[in-house]
Design a protein that fits this description.
Layout lengths: L28 E8 L3 E8 L7 E3 L13 H4 L3 E4 L17 H15 L4 E6 L1 H12 L4 E7 L23 H12 L5 H10 L1 E3 L5 E3 L19 H7 L4 E5 L6 H10 L4 E5 L3 H10 L3
Parallel strand pairs: 3-4, 3-5, 5-6, 6-9, 9-10
Antiparallel strand pairs: 1-2, 2-4, 7-8
Helix pairs in contact: 2-3, 3-6, 4-5
Keywords: Hydrolase
GO molecular function, one term: hydrolase activity
Protein name: Alpha/beta fold hydrolase
Length: 285
């Protein structure tokens, strides 16, 4: 089965109003699309007004909306991109979402969405795509920022989802399924947000995931990690590895980064969106 998920409803961002003081203005957020020769329609969520100063790429099974808890605190113009096969970007018929296969479409989208030379920030699959895209289009991106991710070290939830994934009677059921898969101690707010934002109701009243990973063709690649991206990372100027205290990266992977990315830097931050937002804000002029 294949489908195009390029629709957006006027109420998509209504959840961002929750918790705002009475009478406060809603955050300036909008969705746009671009058609890329390398990957069909690619969607981006734009925060603030003016030209984006950051491009952000999400993990597998998620979408641009996964940055909703970070970008308000960054408080600068930015664009979070839906990777192909995720969010409101087109699915790929062959179901090939390996990072190097996505690099061209992401670089083309970034060229349309943001000025050249802005930092690209990625986590999970998005971090590996950031490496591949920066190698493919070195003039489009500025600094490459990798959040808790290195080649060969994707965490389990960032690998392809079971195919076929079940459908659900409602979003609560989807949440329970996801929570059981990632574990009860794995970022409960993020799990709730994923279940809310990354599911869509079908004509039959059942809910399914927006992303393609739960509906991949039988012959689709089953491993999204790519250890070969170390060679491309070594050629990236001054990459920044952001390591969260208590996060998924082990010391062996970090030591390899220190050795192979000779011009790279490492910053360690406390868990939570506020610390990451402060670090990203500090990268901007």
């Amino acid at each position: 089965m294949s489908r195009s998920l390029t629709d957006a409803t006027p109420i998509e961002f209504a959840d961002l109003l929750a918790g705002l003081p009475e009478g406060a203005a809603p955050p300036p957020v909008q969705r746009r699309w671009v058609s890329t020769p390398a990957g069909g329609h690619v969607s981006g969520v734009f925060w603030q007004t003016g030209l984006p100063q950051l491009v952000l790429l999400h993990e597998a099974g998620s979408s641009a909306r996964s940055w909703d808890d970070v970008l308000p605190a960054v408080d600068r113009p930015a664009v979070a991109v839906d990777l192909p096969g995720h969010g409101r970007s087109n699915w790929r018929g062959r179901g090939d979402y390996r990072p190097r296969r996505l690099a061209g479409a992401v670089a083309e989208a970034a060229h349309s969405f943001a000025p050249a030379g802005v930092p690209v920030v990625g986590r999970g699959l998005g971090a590996l795509v950031a490496i591949a895209a920066a190698a493919k289009a070195p003039t489009q991106f500025g600094r490459v920022v990798l959040v808790d991710t290195l080649p060969g070290a994707l965490t389990a939830p960032d690998r392809p989802w079971p195919t076929p994934s079940p459908d659900f009677a409602g979003q609560d059921e989807a949440h329970d399924w996801l929570a059981a898969r990632v574990g009860p101690d794995s970022a409960a707010p993020a799990t709730a947000r994923t279940a809310r934002q990354e599911t869509v109701e079908g004509d039959d009243g059942r809910w399914t995931w927006r992303h393609h990973l739960g509906s991949l063709p039988d012959d689709a690649p089953t491993d999204l990690d790519d250890d070969a991206l170390w060679a491309r990372l070594a050629a990236v100027p001054a990459p920044l590895l952001v390591r969260t205290e208590g996060g998924p990266l082990d010391d062996k992977a970090v030591a390899r980064f220190t050795t192979e990315a000779a011009t790279g830097e490492i910053s360690t931050v406390e868990p939570g969106p506020a610390a990451l937002a402060a670090l990203l804000r500090g990268l901007l002029p």
